[in-house]
Amino acid sequence: MNMQREAPCIRGIVLVGPAVWGWQTMPFWQRNILRFAAHVVPGKTLTGEGLKITPSDNSEMLRALGRDPLVIKATRIDTMYGLTNLMEAALLSSSELATPTLILYGEKDEIIPHDPTCAMLNRLPDIATTRFVLYPEGYHMLMRDLQAAVVLNLAA
């Protein structure tokens, strides 16, 4: 019995607030602190408390996430290090993107800064099937923001 299956055909990709904040787009002081901490105190956990970052304008949804016991509230430094490696790989590989892609990004995204997103957009190959949509009132959690219906109607 042959268990080998053909890979599914991917017709398109939707990237929402793409995670492309890799090493090369971080300020040097953030890179150095994260690298140092990942090797000295890798198991230490950090929260976003005190950062004054707004992931969404939907405060009711954010409060519900805060109460949800299944939502991670503190993240290990070595996990942040690994995530940064993944975001760096995503940024670097964006130049090889050949699948039709819809990229959605909120102008008010405070999680993934504008510069890394612009770097990704500048690396994209010149294919006519890539579309970038900027939401002036959108945050990082576009599909959970107060204007989520607008975003979801476009992505459908």
SSE order and pairing:
Elements: E1 13-16, H1 28-40, E2 45-46, H2 59-67, E3 75-76, H3 77-93, E4 101-106, H4 114-123, E5 130-135, H5 148-155
Parallel strand pairs: 1-4, 4-5
Antiparallel strand pairs: 2-3
Helix pairs in contact: 1-3
What's this entry about, in short?
The protein has 5 helices and 5 strands; from the N terminus they run βαβαβαβαβα. By secondary structure, the protein is of the alpha/beta class.
Give the oligomeric state of the chains in this entry, treating copies of one chain as homo and distinct chains as hetero.
single chain
CATH class: Alpha Beta
Specify Rg, calculated over alpha carbons. 18 Å
Beta-strand percentage? 5-15%
Relative helix content: 25-40%
**Strand count:** 5
Count of individual helical segments: 5
* CATH superfamily (homologous) name: Alpha/Beta hydrolase fold, catalytic domain
Provide the domain count: 1
- How can the largest sheet be summarized? 3 strands, parallel
The low-confidence parts are none
SSE order? EHEHEHEHEH
Which structural class is indicated by helix and strand composition? alpha/beta
The average pLDDT score comes to 92
Give the strand order, joined by hyphens, for the main sheet: 1-4-5
Q: Could you give the distance between the termini? A: 38 Å
At the third CATH level, what is the topology name?
Rossmann fold
Can you walk through the features of this model?
The chain is of the alpha/beta class and 156 residues long. The chain has one domain (13-155): Rossmann fold (3-Layer(aba) Sandwich). It contains 5 helices and 5 strands; from the N terminus they run E-H-E-H-E-H-E-H-E-H. The strands form 2 sheets. The protein has a 3-stranded parallel sheet, with no helix packed on it. It has a two-stranded antiparallel sheet with strand order 2-3. The longest helix is centred in the middle third of the chain and has 17 residues, at 77-93. The chain starts with 12 loop residues before the first strand and ends with a helix.
